[in-house]
């Protein structure tokens, strides 16, 4: 992920988590609950892949949804795998507030710091979570 994507994922982290939970619950509740046909209709040949086949369209929709959920999960896992990189207490507090869904202004009020200062802290967090940060540290010999 680049820095812009990390910043966007941090901003959206809370709703992404909620959406993953919601989608998983829907999958559990609906899993396999397609309407069965009975009688003569059940024995007739079906045209598969046609736009007029609602079951086929639902399968396609769910497949797309599944891939979307996977993308959301990858974003969340990326952030979660890098939380431990943030060792400064103030930065960690800001990060936790961001992950809990607080706005920059709310974090500013909560911590008694200016919104601009919170933004600088957030930028520092993004830098530390960035793979580019890994690259620069490797080049300067800080990580082996």
List the helices and strands and how they pair.
Blueprint: H1 3-30, H2 40-43, H3 54-80, H4 89-99, H5 104-111, H6 115-129, H7 131-140
Overview in brief:
By secondary structure, the protein is mainly alpha-helical. It has helices at residues 3-30, 40-43, 54-80, 89-99, 104-111, 115-129, 131-140.
Could you describe the 3D structure shown?
The two termini are 21 Å apart. By secondary structure, the chain is mostly helical. The chain has one domain (3-32, 54-140). The longest helix has 28 residues, at 3-30. The chain contains seven helices and no strands. The protein has helices at residues 3-30, 40-43, 54-80, 89-99, 104-111, 115-129, 131-140.
Structure annotation, total helices:
7
Amount of beta strand: under 5%
Number of domains: 1
The SSE string, one letter per element, is HHHHHHH
Regions with little confidence, pLDDT below 50 for 5+ residues: 34-38
Helix content range of the residues, please?
over 70%
Radius of gyration: 22 Å
Q: How many E strands?
A: 0
Major sheet attributes: none
- Principal-axis shape equals elongated
Distance between the termini: 21 Å
Q: Provide the residue-averaged pLDDT.
A: 83
Structural class, by secondary structure, is mainly alpha
């Amino acid at each position: 992920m680049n820095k812009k994507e990390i910043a966007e994922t941090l901003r959206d982290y809370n709703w992404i988590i909620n959406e993953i939970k919601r989608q998983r619950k829907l999958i559990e509740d609906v899993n396999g609950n397609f309407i069965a046909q009975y009688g003569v209709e059940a024995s007739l040949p079906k045209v598969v892949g046609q736009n007029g086949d609602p079951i086929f369209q639902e399968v396609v929709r769910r497949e797309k949804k599944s891939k979307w959920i996977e993308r959301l999960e990858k974003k969340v896992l990326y952030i979660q795998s890098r939380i431990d990189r943030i060792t400064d207490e103030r930065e960690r507090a800001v990060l936790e507030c961001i992950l809990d869904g607080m706005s920059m202004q709310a974090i500013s009020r909560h911590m008694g710091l200016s919104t601009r200062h919170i933004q600088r802290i957030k930028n520092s967090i993004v830098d530390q979570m960035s793979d580019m940060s890994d690259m620069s540290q490797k080049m300067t010999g800080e990580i082996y």
